[in-house]
């Protein structure tokens, strides 16, 4: 958005404040600042974001439309939470979309793209140890990000973003666990090998295999109530 400096009309400045408040609240939600299914009250948000109730209402309406929050009569707005079945559906959808992105990446990867992904996998090995999980998860995310960038297919990328997977991962991350899921770096390397050899079908199959393993790990960890003792994760 272009911000007119010095001669903003009233309408422009309201639009700018709303856009900023939307960005701020969305960032807070994505960063895990609020637990899943947390109540978001207008009075707390106006104080926190420094905007009017009217602005907060329109921001919440937009976030509800995009799936970040839910709004119900008498319950107000709450941050989104996902059942295990919903999380599984999201991972199934990711598998379809990201397989297509991996295929595109295999067609379009330059030597620089490949070098960047190779470096990410190398660093994942360095952090594949007890206590290394946070950095491992970050690198994991970067690898998927690099595939999207390599694919250069903005429509697929937009659909993947709309799945809100970061919120699913946050809810089902099993925060007490410090060990990374050990197979994910090997699965990433299998995808990368198909990209290096410019084989789209094999890259898509390797990505589908990877995301099915992530889905099975999630189901294994969270489908059985009260079983949080497992050392497996679904970092992705
Ligand atoms: Zn992954």
Automatic annotation (TrEMBL):
<keyword id="KW-0805">Transcription regulation</keyword>
<protein>
    <submittedName>
        <fullName>HTH-type transcriptional repressor RspR</fullName>
    </submittedName>
</protein>
<dbReference type="InterPro" id="IPR000524">
    <property type="entry name" value="Tscrpt_reg_HTH_GntR"/>
</dbReference>
<dbReference type="Pfam" id="PF07729">
    <property type="entry name" value="FCD"/>
</dbReference>
<keyword id="KW-0238">DNA-binding</keyword>
<dbReference type="GO" id="GO:0003700">
    <property type="term" value="F:DNA-binding transcription factor activity"/>
</dbReference>
<keyword id="KW-0804">Transcription</keyword>
<dbReference type="InterPro" id="IPR036388">
    <property type="entry name" value="WH-like_DNA-bd_sf"/>
</dbReference>
<dbReference type="Pfam" id="PF00392">
    <property type="entry name" value="GntR"/>
</dbReference>
<feature type="domain" description="HTH gntR-type">
    <location>
        <begin position="15"/>
        <end position="82"/>
    </location>
</feature>
<dbReference type="GO" id="GO:0003677">
    <property type="term" value="F:DNA binding"/>
</dbReference>
<dbReference type="InterPro" id="IPR036390">
    <property type="entry name" value="WH_DNA-bd_sf"/>
</dbReference>
<dbReference type="InterPro" id="IPR008920">
    <property type="entry name" value="TF_FadR/GntR_C"/>
</dbReference>
<dbReference type="InterPro" id="IPR011711">
    <property type="entry name" value="GntR_C"/>
</dbReference>
């Amino acid at each position: 958005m272009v911000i007119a400096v010095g001669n903003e009309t009233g309408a422009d400045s309201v639009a700018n404040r709303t856009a900023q408040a939307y960005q701020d609240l969305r960032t807070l939600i994505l960063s895990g600042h609020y637990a899943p299914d947390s109540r978001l009250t207008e009075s707390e948000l106006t104080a926190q974001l420094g905007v009017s109730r009217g602005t907060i209402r329109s921001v919440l309406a937009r976030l509800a439309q995009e799936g970040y929050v839910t709004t119900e009569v008498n319950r107000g707005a709450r941050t989104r939470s996902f059942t295990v079945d919903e999380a599984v559906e999201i991972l199934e959808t990711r598998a379809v979309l990201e397989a297509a992105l991996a295929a595109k990446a295999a067609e379009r990867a330059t030597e620089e793209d490949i070098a960047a992904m190779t470096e990410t996998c190398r660093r994942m090995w360095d952090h594949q140890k007890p206590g290394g999980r946070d950095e491992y998860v970050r690198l994991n995310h970067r690898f998927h990000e690099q595939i999207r960038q390599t694919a250069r297919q903005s429509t697929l990328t937009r659909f993947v973003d709309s799945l809100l997977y970061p919120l699913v991962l946050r809810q089902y991350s099993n925060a007490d666990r410090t060990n990374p899921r050990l197979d994910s770096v090997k699965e990433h390397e299998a995808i990368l090998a198909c990209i290096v050899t410019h084989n789209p079908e094999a890259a898509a199959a390797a990505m589908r295999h990877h995301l099915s393993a992530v889905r099975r790990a999630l189901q294994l960890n969270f489908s059985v109530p009260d079983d949080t003792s497992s050392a497996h994760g679904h970092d992705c």
